[in-house]
Amino acid sequence: MKNKMPFLNRGSGTSFNEQIDQWSSSINGFAPTISFLFNAIFTIMFLFGAVRLGYSMVTKTGQAMKFSTGLLIWVPITVFFIRIFILFIFTLRDAASFAEDLITLLQYIGYYFSVGMILTGLVFFLFHKLINHPEFGRWGKRLWGLSGILVILVTIMPQVLGAA
Q1: Which of 10, 15, 125, 157 could be a cystine partner for 140, CB 3.0 to 4.6 Å?
Q2: Does residue 52 contact residue 66 with C-beta atoms inside 8 Å?
Q3: Cα separation of 82 and 45, whole Å?
């Protein structure tokens, strides 16, 4: 019987699943090399930004300074987010689990953020009492109110979205 899909195994007698396993293992074999190249490229970009920042300070060139500071800021942020993205990709079990974990993470962030808002409001209220400036009192009260609203939203929204 003639092979119906010759492009998959090319007559070698291996199944499609075996070929996928071979391809994935060969791709996984390149992972250290790709990781090294990734780190090397971003390190070179960061060093280029540092050298260009020195050049812009010596020559007082605003455009070069703007470019180099942008590069020095965004290279580490990009590396961080790419690594977090890769971590999420390889630890992802299924989409529903990821959504639940993301909602739980947002809940915890909301709770901690509201505690920070309350503490910042207390500091503003302290400044209001110390220097008797009405703006600090208003800002403190606004932060307390927004903190309460945030706690209510973070507590109720997972039930509304059906994720709890």
Answers
A1: 125
A2: no
A3: 15
pLDDT of residue 17: 74
**31 in Cβ contact with 25 (< 8 Å):** no
Q: Is the pTM of this model over 0.85?
A: no
Q: Which ranges in 10-133 belong to alpha helices (H)?
A: 16-29, 31-59, 62-91, 95-131
The first and second tokens of residue 50, run together, are 């540092």
Tell me the per-residue pLDDT of 5-58, one tens digit each, with 9 for 90 and over.
555 555 566 677 777 777 777 777 777 888 899 899 999 999 999 999 999 999
Supply 22's token pair: 């071979």
Within its chain, how far is the Cα of 100 from the centroid?
17
CB 38 within 8 A of CB 80: no
Q: How far is CA 58 from CA 49, 53, 147, in A?
A: 14, 9, 47
pLDDT 10s digits, 55-77: 999 999 889 999 999 999 999 99
The Cα 89–Cα 77 span in angstroms is: 18
Token look-up 């309350």 returns 118
10 Å CB burial of residue 51 (0-12, 13-18, 19+) is exposed
